[in-house]
């Protein structure tokens, strides 16, 4: 049997806002596995919320770049040793240039990126030079490139440089991309992704394992009610609908317009521009995640 330490109990309490004794009981039942203990608390209906536990990482920044035609973009995480360097304009500017290289060359992996041309040499050479100039070790932690054929991309970078995302929109008319109303809507949606950290853009895109996990939790909670099975099913389905509304971007209430969902705002913009604007996907990087 795993040893249940005070530190482990404290960590679970901080993650779930649950009572200390209930946290200890859950850890005992889960044999010290903190993820399983979270599920135990949720099934008991004790856990108020599960905070995503972060892990310690190096310092650095997340960069976002979108091509001039608005159809190709990339997020890139560049790490360094200190926060002082992580917020240095020279460092953050270099991260943006690297994201641009990703957009223009579509490298398959880190090694392919290092071999890409940059500033008359290669990314590997430029990275080495930057290390020498700034005096700190740095590396590309990850990157992702996205593109759209009929539509446009929108980005949002948080002011601290630690969080960024790119949202993909689809529509039929090329002129929609240049419309101020669409640009404003797209920016607000990208900001929503940063603020609310949705699971997916649409309910059909929720990963199967996430959906099954949530269903199992809701069914267990419903079973605790002692009500007939058909009532339990309705309770679980109701909780699942709430999950979709809270975690699927298009079904979330807008942080800019209370009482209106992202889907409803998309329909409003579509009607105004005589097009069919759809929010189809997003990529979100939180530094060190």
From TrEMBL:
Record-linked InterPro entries: EF-Ts_dimer_sf, Transl_elong_EFTs/EF1B, Transl_elong_EFTs/EF1B_dimer, UBA-like_sf
GO CC annotation: cytoplasm
Coiled-coil stretches noted in the UniProt entry, renumbered to this chain: none
Ranges for domain Translation elongation factor EFTs/EF1B dimerisation: 73-289
Region Involved in Mg(2+) ion dislocation from EF-Tu, residue ranges: 82-85
One of the record's GO molecular function terms: translation elongation factor activity
Gene3D superfamilies from the UniProt entry: 1.10.286.20, DNA helicase RuvA subunit, C-terminal domain, Elongation factor Ts, dimerisation domain
Keyword Manganese: no
Keywords: Cytoplasm, Elongation factor, Protein biosynthesis
Compartments in which it is found: Cytoplasm
Lineage top rank: taxon: Bacteria
Database matches in HAMAP family: EF_Ts
UniProt function note: Associates with the EF-Tu.GDP complex and induces the exchange of GDP to GTP. It remains bound to the aminoacyl-tRNA.EF-Tu.GTP complex up to the GTP hydrolysis stage on the ribosome.
Protein family according to the UniProt entry: Belongs to the EF-Ts family.
Protein name per its UniProtKB record: Elongation factor Ts
Organism for this UniProt entry: Parafannyhessea umbonata
Gene name of the record: tsf
């Amino acid at each position: 049997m795993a040893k249940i330490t005070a530190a482990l109990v404290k960590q679970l309490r901080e993650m779930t806002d649950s009572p200390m004794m209930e946290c200890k009981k859950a850890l005992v039942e889960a044999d010290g596995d903190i993820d399983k203990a979270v599920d135990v608390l949720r099934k008991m209906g004790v856990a108020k919320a599960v905070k995503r536990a972060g892990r310690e990482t190096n310092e650095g920044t997340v960069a976002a770049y979108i091509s001039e035609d608005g159809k190709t973009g990339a997020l890139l995480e560049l790490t360094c040793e200190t926060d002082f360097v992580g917020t240095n304009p020279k460092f953050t500017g270099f991260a943006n240039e690297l994201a641009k290289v990703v957009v223009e060359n579509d490298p398959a992996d880190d090694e392919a990126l290092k071999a890409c041309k940059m500033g008359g040499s290669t990314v590997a050479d430029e990275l080495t030079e930057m290390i020498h100039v700034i005096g700190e070790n740095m590396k590309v932690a990850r990157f992702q490139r996205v593109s759209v054929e009929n539509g446009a991309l929108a980005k949002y970078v948080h002011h601290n440089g630690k969080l960024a995302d790119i949202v993909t929109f689809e529509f039929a008319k090329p002129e929609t991309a240049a419309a101020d109303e669409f640009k404003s809507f797209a920016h607000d949606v990208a900001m929503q992704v940063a603020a609310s950290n949705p699971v997916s853009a649409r309910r059909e895109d929720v990963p199967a394992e996430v959906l099954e996990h949530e269903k199992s939790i809701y069914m267990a909670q419903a079973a605790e009610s002692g009500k007939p099975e058909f009532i339990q099913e309705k309770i679980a389905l109701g909780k699942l609908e709430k999950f979709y509304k809270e975690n699927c971007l298009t079904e979330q209430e807008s942080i800019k317009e209370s009482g209106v969902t992202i889907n409803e705002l998309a329909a409003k913009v579509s009607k105004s521009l005589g097009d069919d604007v759809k929010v189809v996907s997003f990529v979100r990087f939180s530094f060190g995640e």
